[in-house]
Design goal:
40 helices; two-stranded antiparallel ribbon; single chain; four-stranded antiparallel sheet
Length: 1251
């Protein structure tokens, strides 16, 4: 018998509080419900008891303990006390009678108690009738399909299909677009190109490049060749591949630990939700996926009963504590997390971190010779205002901060050599190298006007090349035979056609051109433009017969070496070109190039070039077929004799032409060619004028450098320059790593950096608000949540497929879009960060995105979901369960959304990395629109590798794994799938797609930071687990986990700082410190303006001489030698810094760019103008040479491009290069021509058909 005697209030403010009161009373029986609270079955049983039954029970006269405050429902017109209490009016009590109550249930269990009957006084107020609470039981055990499981399954199928389609599309497109997907096979130098990847459908899954690049410790072969250096010093992209492998290895270990060890702890001999969870009065349910998580185990720590008697020893029964088994499991889980989850992962990370640190040390000492590169702004060194470059160099040398500005350190021997390659005194390490040794200093002047002029010249150059390309494409090589436009050339004829005859500058050109316009020419000579020289060249007629062969018409041929006087008596004397009288031709006009011969009468007519053609049987006497195939007569008058001449048709064999083919326009629209040629003329004039103007401005800027006028700052490189006060380091150590526009705009500084980070905070707040809404939609099916969000009641159903889609797929898509938008916003805002180098900008961008993904997408999304999950607990005025437990339960419940996000990204994200649809579309459209070779080169030019885009999804996956890989083991497999597919895609992209352009190499600086932060993320899982156990008042275990999380963070921060630390200023010698102090005083105080002699100390007296006309890059070097007395060292003696990259500036290295394209012939020996200024760190506009006009090459033998190149170089003084033509294409054309000629000689039917 159970006796309950808690007093009940006389009225209830709300219906919910009435239900909560009776749930708190726990007046129930195990046979009614598996829950300890008042269930729907108990309320229903009580509601069926009428007042009449209770009155009959009163007659027994028994008395006992009373139960007051129990609402009863009467039949007929009686109004229940509970119904009246919900109206908000007080219900007065008049009398109370205590009666015994005995209930006999189907389980033969008898519950005896006493009930107090309350008689209500009459009242004029009639309360509305309200039904009892409608409890909902929607919990499904693991293995069942509730709405959440259906939504996860649907999301998995949909995203998997989309991802597989993307991968299939890439497999099909990749072999067809080698311009984009095999870029490293043709863009870099041949020494560092990867092996050719076959065109198989799945060949990209296992390319011949390492999955995990090695880090060789032996660097004795460094500097011998580019191939050896590429193997000894992997790029930053290859180091990222190693970092991805480490993250995948750790995630795989956590997944196996969660599925093999943690999951059995949760589900073995423990009740599922349907057996242990209480009934939910306002709808919703705990989904079946969380039934396979830590939530199933910690729920046994609550004050609940279970329906299975065999499991009652693991729960709370009455007031007896039966939870030691659950606590033992939690202790085992804590040991698994710390000893098997955190420690092995930390060991792996530290090992990889040490390997990359050792590699970076070798990279700095051997590959870079410990040479650093930095930027010193004029704002940070106002004392150098007005100082010329020569004066600053003299100051550094006199103060012992430089051993010579024109010296370079060999990367192999470590010796310092001068510009002549001789070993400098004191340059050897044994002789004592200075701690701070500036090897080079370059003044950066203001180049705004110069940059505008160069940009305008680039536009004019593009217009000129476009017009030239259209002009060249307007001509082709034709045979000159009516109906036969294509020309077949043998090797000798092709060689002759490749020789470009030039027109001679003689008088009477107009008359000679008019004399060539004979009858039979179907296109007039152009007057609005100048055609190629071959268009006007008089070509000799070649006979098929030998010179000494008898003429069939009796005309004797002059023999070789015959005196000219002996040929005077012949019928044919003088020129070989004979006049054809149009009135003697009866068969119409002859096309230009038609074969003619002299008949017996001595007059010219259609000629036969071989005996085989003369043997063609006629269709009739003196008849030849006309253009419609009809036979007609054709006579050539001459002394009364008629000669039969076969007219060439498709059915007769055409005579073989032995004259040189003609170059003709494609169409007769000479007006269009006239407009194109007018554009060419204007562009040539404008570009020559711009060349002279740019040359003058460049000379002025070099004078400003020497005098210290209009200076923005100085770029320095050398040993130990990081100790120079207020210098900003350039970690990329290359010219491409410098942000030249930022140097000109003076946007480098703390203010711009603060603006950037404030923008990142704003983006994070906006993303947090958006993800809070996403979390609210994801927890719509949580218990009692829909009651407080009425518009989500439809999504709270536990067996509705639409509700599953609304709570899984919809929030997943929304969260993915919000996160992607935030990443792109941060990417674009990183340009305003005020960073001097591209590598620093990319590092800052990656840090920002990493923090956003960790704190907003990971921690905040989990916290927001947990708070929204427990909104019912916070809204209730009085609850038996602590609110902290509901919040902890919500943090596990929201892990389902995190899992679905990873599922949606697992296949799609690596597929998009491979396919690169945006880049593919831009490249394809730009390549289709390209007219000139330069436009095609720029369309195919590789984009800069951005680690933020390549690793964003992987970082998000690692963050989720660090939080829930063991707490919610189901999240592990999609994370592992995402990381392994990203690893496969990244290997292919690094090996064959990503170009190392636009950014310098840092020796693994970013990768070290990533490994450092991955070690910090190891503290997340102990932290989350400690918070969950803290909500169950397990103080010991929670304290151990939270303390371990704190120690992990402290240890990783201290260890990484210790390994990455660099020697400070205190490690320098006293002389070096004194020199740096002198430099700091000189740069901080504004000095007097230097005298003319000081400012121009290195200016040569030859400046007074007249400026020589510019012709090539040598003129730039002449300006430097005349103005600054500085000449760059050769590539043999130049030091390792600035580092070489794969970047190609088509305006400078035009010859190299012309040989850099898919299918281009191998590199030949050519002079790359970029090598002349590779060691100079002046702004690119200041070193911009004369542009080289890049023209397309016509490979059909017309030689129009060669003719234009000759004209531009000889008559206009402009340098020209032609597009490199692949030898296979030329050999194929020659082979095809030879085959067709062989068929023509053999007289095969195919030859006749082709003719």
């Amino acid at each position: 018998m159970s006796t309950l005697s808690d007093p009940a209030p006389t009225s209830y403010p709300s219906y919910a509080e009435a239900v909560q009161f009776y749930e708190k009373r726990q007046w129930k029986h195990p046979a009614w419900s598996s829950s300890a609270s008042l269930s729907s079955k108990s309320v229903s049983s009580v509601s069926k008891m009428s007042l009449a039954s209770l009155s009959s029970a009163t007659a027994t006269g028994s008395s006992g303990s009373s139960i007051t405050g129990i609402p009863t429902w009467s039949s007929g017109s009686s109004t229940s006390a509970l119904q009246q209490s919900t109206t908000g009016f007080p219900l007065p009590l008049t009398t109370s009678t205590t009666v015994p109550l005995t209930l006999t249930l189907a389980s033969s269990t008898i519950l005896t108690s006493t009930v107090s009957l309350v008689e209500l006084s009459s009242s004029p107020t009639v309360a509305p009738v309200m039904d009892p609470p409608a409890y909902v039981s929607g919990n499904v055990c693991a293995g069942g399909l509730d709405s959440s499981a259906q939504g996860v399954l649907a999301t998995t199928i949909i995203t998997a299909l989309i991802g597989l389609l993307i991968w299939l599309a890439f497999a099909i497109v990749r072999p067809r677009f080698p311009h984009l997907y095999a870029l490293r096979e043709w863009f870099p130098n041949p020494d560092i190109r990867p092996p050719h990847l076959r065109s198989g459908l799945l060949a990209f899954l296992h390319p011949p490049v390492p999955l995990v690049p090695d880090l060789p410790a032996d660097t004795s072969d460094a500097g011998r060749s580019a191939t050896d250096d590429a193997q000894l010093f992997p790029s930053d992209q290859e180091l990222t591949q190693r970092t991805l492998w480490t993250a995948f290895f750790i995630a795989l270990g956590w997944t196996l630990l969660g599925l093999i060890a943690a999951l059995p702890l949760y589900v073995a001999s423990t009740p599922c939700w349907a057996e242990s969870s209480p009934q939910i009065p306002y709808g919703g349910a705990l989904n079946t996926l969380t039934d396979l998580s830590l939530l199933r185990l910690i729920k046994l720590m609550d004050n609940t009963r279970v329906s299975d008697p065999s499991l009652s020893r693991r729960a709370i029964v009455g007031d007896s504590d039966k939870k030691p088994n659950t606590r033992i499991r939690l202790i085992i889980l804590t040991v698994l997390v710390l000893l098997l989850g955190v420690l092995p992962a930390m060991f792996k990370l530290i090992r990889e971190f040490n390997a990359v640190v050792a590699y970076r040390k070798r990279w700095l000492e051997v590959h870079c010779a410990n040479i650093e590169m930095g930027w010193l702004s004029l704002k940070d060194a106002p004392g150098f205002t007005g100082w010329g470059e020569g004066r600053i160099k003299d100051f550094l040398i006199k103060n012992g901060l430089s051993s010579g500005m024109n010296r370079a350190r060999s990367p192999r021997t470590g010796r310092i050599t001068d510009s002549n390659g001789q070993v400098a005194e004191g340059g050897n390490e044994d002789n004592g190298r200075p701690d701070v040794d500036v090897h080079g200093l370059f003044t950066i002047p203001e180049t705004g006007r110069l940059a505008e002029l160069i940009e305008e010249r680039d536009r004019v150059l593009e217009d000129l090349e476009v017009a030239e390309a259209r002009y060249i494409a307007s001509f082709r090589l034709t045979s000159g035979v009516p109906g036969q436009e294509e020309v077949d050339l043998d090797d000798d004829e092709r060689d002759r056609s490749m020789r470009i005859p030039r027109p001679k500058l003689l008088s009477g050109t107009h008359q000679r051109r008019n004399s060539r316009q004979v009858a039979g020419v179907d296109e007039g000579t152009p007057t609005s433009y100048v055609a190629p020289s071959s268009y006007y060249k008089l070509r000799e007629v070649h006979d098929a017969e030998k010179a000494d062969a008898p003429d069939p018409h009796g005309v004797k041929r002059p023999k070789a070496g015959e005196p000219l006087t002996e040929s005077f008596g012949r019928s044919v004397v003088g020129t070989k070109f004979q006049e054809v009288h149009h009135d003697e031709i009866k068969h119409g006009a002859l096309s230009l190039g038609t074969a003619v011969r002299m008949g017996k009468s001595g007059r010219i007519g259609l000629g036969l070039s071989s005996a085989s053609e003369r043997d063609v049987p006629p269709h009739g006497p003196n008849s030849i077929p006309d253009e419609h195939g009809e036979l007609r007569k054709s006579t050539i008058s001459g002394e009364g004799n008629e000669e039969r001449v076969p007219w060439p048709t498709e059915t007769t064999q055409r005579p073989r032409q032995h004259q040189t083919p003609l170059v003709r326009p494609l169409t007769g629209q000479h007006e269009t060619l006239g407009q194109i040629y007018h554009t060419i003329s204007n562009a040539r004039t404008r570009i020559k004028a711009l060349n002279n103007e740019i040359s003058d401005v460049q000379q002025e800027k070099f004078n400003d450098i020497a005098a210290g006028r209009a200076v923005k700052g100085w770029l320095l490189f050398g040993n130990g320059i990081r100790h120079i006060p207020k210098i900003k380091m350039i970690e990329g150590r290359s010219k491409e790593d410098v942000r030249w526009d930022e140097l000109q705009g003076n946007r480098i500084g703390l203010v711009n950096t603060l603006i950037y980070w404030l923008s990142v905070v704003v983006v994070g707040l906006l993303l947090a608000a958006a993800l809070a809404a996403v979390a609210g939609l994801a927890v719509a099916g949580a218990p009692n949540y829909a009651h407080f969000a009425g518009f989500l009641k439809g999504a709270s159903s536990s067996d509705n497929f639409g509700a599953g889609i609304a709570t899984t797929l919809a929030p997943t898509v929304a969260a993915t879009l919000f996160i992607a938008a935030a990443v792109y916003l941060i990417h674009y805002m990183s340009k305003i960060g005020g960073y001097v180098s591209v590598s620093s900008m990319l590092l800052s961008e990656f840090k920002s995105i990493f923090y956003i993904l960790t704190f907003v997408c990971g921690m905040w999304l989990t916290a927001a979901g947990a708070l929204l999950f427990s909104v019912g607990s916070f809204a209730a005025a009085d609850t038996n369960e602590p609110r902290s437990r509901t919040v902890a339960d919500g943090s596990i419940y929201i892990a389902v959304l995190l899992m679905v996000i990873i599922i949606s990204l697992a296949i799609i994200s690596p597929g998009l990395l491979l396919l690169r649809p945006v880049r593919l579309w831009k490249t394809w459209t730009a390549y289709r629109k390209a007219v000139t070779p330069r436009q095609r080169f720029r369309a195919l030019y590789p984009s800069r590798y951005n680690p933020s885009f390549a690793l964003a999804c992987s970082v998000l996956a690692v963050v989720f794994a660090s939080m829930f890989a063991i707490i919610f083991p189901l999240i592990g497999p999609p994370i592992v799938l995402l990381l392994i597919l990203t690893l496969v895609a990244h290997r292919f992209l690094v090996g064959y797609v990503y170009g190392r352009t636009g950014v310098g190499q840092t020796g693994g600086l970013l990768q070290l930071w990533i490994l450092h932060r991955l070690g910090t993320l190891l503290a997340l899982q102990p932290f989350v687990l400690g918070i969950i156990l803290l909500s169950r008042e397990l103080w010991g275990l929670a304290g151990i986990l939270l303390g371990a999380a704190f120690l992990i963070v402290v240890f990783m921060e201290a260890y990484t700082w210790y390994r990455m630390r660099l020697p400070g200023r205190n490690s320098l010698s006293p002389i070096a410190r004194d020199s740096l102090e002198n430099l700091a005083r000189a740069t901080s105080l504004r000095s007097r303006s230097p005298s003319k002699e000081e400012g121009l100390s290195l200016v040569s007296s030859r400046l007074t001489h007249s400026r020589r006309p510019r012709s090539s890059m040598a003129s730039i070097l002449d300006m430097m030698s005349l103005t600054l007395a500085v000449m760059p060292s050769t590539s043999r003696t130049r030091g390792p810094v600035p580092l070489n990259t794969e970047a190609i500036d088509d305006r400078v290295s035009t010859e190299k760019a012309a040989r850099t394209r898919p299918g281009a012939p191998p590199y030949l020996s050519f002079a790359d103008r970029a090598e002349d200024t590779a060691g100079l760190l002046y702004p690119p506009p200041l070193l911009a040479p004369l542009p080289i006009i890049w023209l397309p090459n016509d490979s059909d033998g017309a030689n129009v491009a060669h003719s234009e190149a000759f004209d531009l170089q000889k008559y206009h003084g402009l340098e020209v290069t032609l597009e490199a033509v692949h030898e296979r294409r030329r050999s194929y054309s020659t082979h095809r021509s030879a085959s067709r000629q062989q068929e023509a000689r053999s007289g095969s039917p195919a030859a006749s058909h082709n003719a």
